[in-house]
Amino acid sequence: MLTRIKHFFFLVFLALLISQFIRPDKNQGSYDSITNFEEATLVSADVKTIFENNCYDCHTNSTRYPLYMEISPITHWMSYQIKEGKEHFNISEWDSYTDKEKDHKLEELTEEVELKKMPLKPYTWIHGELSGQDREKLIQWAKDTRVKIKEKPLDSLPIHESDTTIVDSVQADTVI
């Protein structure tokens, strides 16, 4: 019986050792897409700090990797969490969302933060909980941004050829 336990722990150790050399791709994109999001949604300095500390690592194409992220199986687990987070809401892809999708993403963000499902508990163990005040700031920003999206001014909407009226011009002879 003792030899089976030794074999089991040896295999677990061997699997962990091998997994150190099999690395998932890192999520290291440009910060430009995040800047576009912040400018388009008029993110205040307070809300930007909340996003940077609690959201951007899993919901953008640019993740900050602390030292503990180099240890397997944490690396693989976090890679999976980042992939899942970006599937639900990828801030780096904000420009590619339609207004309806943007509204829906912000609605989901509000619900997840209100229900304290976001940020995820394992993330908060190391990075700390989102304070009640920060939670309220983020929720209010999302609600305000949803209103702005719905009340888009007409002059910011794209003009399609079918929406324009063509007026025939008449050339008049000038008399001198």
Sum this structure up briefly:
56% of the residues lie in helices and 0% in strands. With 176 residues, the protein is an all-alpha fold.
Secondary-structure map:
Layout: H1 2-19, H2 32-40, H3 45-54, H4 56-59, H5 74-88, H6 99-114, H7 121-127, H8 132-150
What gap, in angstroms, lies between the N and C termini?
Answer: 115 Å
Largest sheet: none
The DSSP helix count reads 8
* SSE sequence, one letter per element: HHHHHHHH
The low-confidence runs, each spanning 5 or more residues with pLDDT under 50, are 157-170
**Total separate domains:** 1
Strand content: under 5%
Using only CA atoms, what is the Rg? 25 Å
Helix/strand class: mainly alpha
Overall mean pLDDT: 82
Helix content: 55-70%
Shape: elongated
Number of strands: 0
Features:
single chain, 176 residues, mainly alpha, elongated
